[in-house]
Amino acid sequence: MAIIKCPECGHPVSDKAPTCPNCGVEIAGKVNLNVPQQNIKENTNTPKSENPKPKKGISRVLIVSFVIALITCGVVFYFYHDAQTSKEQEAYEYAMKSTDPAVLQSYLDTYTDAPEEHIDSIQNHLNSLQQVDKDWTNALVSDSKSALQDYLDKHPDSPYKAVAEHKIDSIDWTLVSTTNTNDAYNKYLEDHPNGEHVDEAKDGIKNLNANTVQPEERVIINGLFRNFFQSINSRDEQALMSTCEGLLTSFLGKTDATKSDVVTFLNKIWKDDMTNMNWHINNDYKIDKKEVGDGEYEYTVTFSAIQSKEFNDASKNGKSKFRISAKVSPNDRISSFNMTKIIE
C-alpha cells in the first residue's frame, strides 16, 4: 500500500482505498502508479505563479534576430548604394568624353538623382554639342569654303572636323582642276599636303609639263639661242660649242654633226673682208615639247632671225632673213640646227 494524492482533489489517500474520503472519487484500481507524481493534477488551490515561465528567453531570441536582420539590411543597402554610385560615376565619365548628344541625354534621363554638379556638367556639355551641331548645319548649308573654315577655326575639336576638311578639299580641287595650271596644282599641294587629290595634282603637273611649254622653259630656250648667235657675232668658238651637244642629229643638213662642224660653219660665214656681223632674233618662237624620259623633255623650236653684214666695201653691206628650225635636248643644248633663207 502507498499513500498518494487524490487525482481529483489532491487529498492524501491510500492507493488501496476504494474512494477518496474527501471527494469520493474512485481510487482503487483507477490510479496509474507509474505516472510521475508531478504529472498528477494538483490541488486546484495551487497558486498559478508556481508554473514555469519561458517567455523571457523567447523575447531575447526575437530581439537578437531583429538586430541581425537590421544589420544585414544595412550591409545590403550599403553595397547596393555603393554599386549604384560607381555605376553613375562610370556613366558620367563616359558621357563627358562623348561627342554624341544622345549619350548625354541618356545619362540625364537615367540618373535623375545624380549629384547636382554632375548633372550641371553634363547639361553644359550637351548645350555645347548642340551649339556645335547648329553651327555645323549653317556651314554645311552654305557650302562655302570660308564658312567651313570659320567653323573649323571656331570648333577645332568638332566631331565633324573630318567632314569639313573633306568638303574644303573638294571645293579647292574643283577650282584647281578647272584652272589646270601648274601654279594652281602647286597651290593645292601646298594647302593640302595630305589631301585626297595629291596624286591627281602631281599627275596634272606632269601632264602640263609634258604638253605645255612653261614660261621658265621659254626663257631657257630663248637664252640658249641668243648665246648661240652672240657667239657667232663675237667669233667665240668656245662659247659657241658650249651651246651645242657633242653630237647633233642634224646641222645645216649634215647628219651626226660634231662641234667641229659648228666651228667650221662659224669660220665659213665670216668672210675675210667682213668687218662686222650681227644676228637679231625675232620674238616669234614656236615651241613644241615631247617627253623622252621620266620628267625629261625634248623641244622643237622654230623662229626667224635677221643677219646684218658689214664689209670693207660698203656696197656689199646688207641684211638677210632666215627661218630657223632646231631641237633642244633635255640638257638644254642644241641637238639639231637648220636654217633656210627667206626671200622677200
From TrEMBL:
Q: Where is the composition biased (Polar residues)?
A: 36-49
Transmembrane spans? 61-80
Superkingdom of this protein's organism: Bacteria
Q: Putative zinc-ribbon domain: which residues?
A: 4-26
UniProt keyword terms in alphabetical order: Membrane, Transmembrane, Transmembrane helix
Q: Identify the stretch(es) annotated as Disordered.
A: 36-55
The name of this protein is Putative zinc-ribbon domain-containing protein
Which organism is this entry from? Prevotella herbatica
